[in-house]
Design a protein that fits this description.
This protein has six helices and six strands; from the N terminus they run βααβαβααβαββ. The chain has a six-stranded mixed beta sheet, with helices on both faces. The protein is α/β, with parallel strands linked by helices. α2 runs parallel beside α3 and α5 crosses α6. The radius of gyration is 14 Å and the shape is globular.
Length: about 150
Amino acid sequence: MNEIVLLRHGHALSAREAGVASDAERPLSPLGETEVRAAAERLLTAGFAPDVIISSPFLRARRTADIAASVFPAARRQTSAALSDGPAQAVMDLVEGLPGGSTLLVGHQPLLGAVAGFRLGAGPLDFPPGGFARIRCGEPPSLTEFYAPAAPR
């Protein structure tokens, strides 16, 4: 693995707002859709091109991955419950099992923050909705960008 990007899903509606029965069914809000598109386009502009996009099976993460895939149409797609259920080691095992190249992982906080901290040998990172960490995998791994979308006005 050369590089991973950990992308938190964008702002989502609450279960009550969305009229759904479970957390897994919560959709992105219109703001969340905008945040995610901006994050993916920022990555594209910076030269990131994932070979694979792996998302949590939760609706808001899958939709985030759909938006990212529209920006990166050549990337393969898959889902993994490790990105919703954890623990951080399960996500790292998932990443280590992939062939070389670049991977975009779409999931939830606090799991993504724990994975980033684990990978970087630091404390957990606090990902805002639609935020990402771009990590170059080497010895030692390095954080090349941490992105937080602008707060809504």
